[in-house]
Amino acid sequence: MSDHKDIMLDETDDLMISGGDFFVGESLTQETGIILRLNQGDLKSDPILGPNLIQLEHGVESESDFVERVRIHLKRDNKNYNAVKSRINMNFKKQ
Questions:
Q1: Distance between CA 4 and CA 27 in Å, rounded?
Q2: N or C: which end of the chain has fewer CB within 10 A?
Q3: 70, 79, 24, 15 alpha-carbon torsion, rounded to 10°
Q4: pLDDT value at position 1?
């Protein structure tokens, strides 16, 4: 994957400032996390992007359904699931 550099956000999604300027760093994990929190319709520029993972939390879908939804939405943003899956903490619990 290419080198992902962008303006970084802190744990509350506020801009990180360093020395009076925006802090820039490796952003692949940050970008992936933002995508996984989206619901469809959240982004005006791409209203289809957003895996709606909260729907799966109480549904009857399997872990493979969950992973496939993540894979599809990461691919929509040109991210390879296999390259980032070690950075994703998915605690799939079947009820």
A1: 5
A2: C
A3: -30
A4: 46
